[in-house]
Design brief:
- This protein has 199 residues and is of the alpha/beta class.
- The chain has one domain (9-196): Maf protein.
- 29% of the residues lie in helices and 22% in strands.
- The radius of gyration is 17 Å and the shape is globular.
- The two termini are 17 Å apart.
Length: 199
């Protein structure tokens, strides 16, 4: 049975500044105080899962148990059809230890040379964990095409090369409010709200 969130404080189990800002903005209407894992000096657990779901749950549970507070984790990435779903769960690793996503986007472009299929999906899985081990997990996806060269300086990660179906701007060009309305993270978040944050 789904567990409603009844607290006033939530840990965001991420050290990714862009992700933290985006999730905090999504949480704002609920009047819940949000704290990032880095602010609490929580270690980043090794992502040993083989799916977005497994990694999101692993991160959320580690943060909840270390902090004694409910924790929300996101595992997300770009899945490119012509690359058999890569970079997928390794999306951040393609950017290297310094998280250089210009490098990661260039790597995607190189891997796609000679391929005409530019279809891709952004995938986000949100896991909300409590210190007692209970977890609620939601998945969101948005389909689109990859465009090169990258367009726009908004967003983060692979946003400048992702053009969602039916849109004329990449996620890197979109105003934050528009992106929050249609993104993979927004889809997962709406499911989470319907399950756990109804007031």
């Amino acid at each position: 049975m789904a567990r409603p969130f009844a607290g006033e404080r939530l840990v965001i189990a991420s050290h990714n500044r862009g992700k933290l800002v985006e999730i905090a903005e999504l949480m704002q209407p609920f009047g819940i105080a949000v704290t990032g894992a880095a602010e609490l000096r929580l270690p980043e657990p090794e992502e040993t899962g083989t799916t977005f779901e497994a990694n999101a749950e692993l991160k959320a549970l580690a943060a909840a148990q270390a902090s004694g507070l409910p924790a929300l984790a996101d595992d997300s990435g770009l899945a490119v059809v012509a690359l058999d779903g890569a970079p997928g769960i390794y999306s951040a690793r393609w950017a290297g230890p310094d998280r250089d996503f210009a490098r990661a986007m260039a790597l995607v472009e190189r891997r796609l040379q000679g391929q005409s299929d530019r279809r891709a999906a952004f995938v986000a899985v949100l896991a909300l964990a409590w210190p007692d081990g209970h977890i609620e997990t939601m998945r969101g996806e948005v389909l689109g095409q990859l465009v090169f060269p990258p367009r726009g300086t908004r967003g983060f990660g692979y946003d400048p090369i992702f053009l969602a179906d039916g849109e004329s701007e990449t996620f890197g060009e979109m105003a934050p409010a528009r992106k929050h309305a249609i993104s993979h993270r927004a889809v997962a978040f709406r499911k989470l709200v319907a399950t756990c944050f109804r007031r």
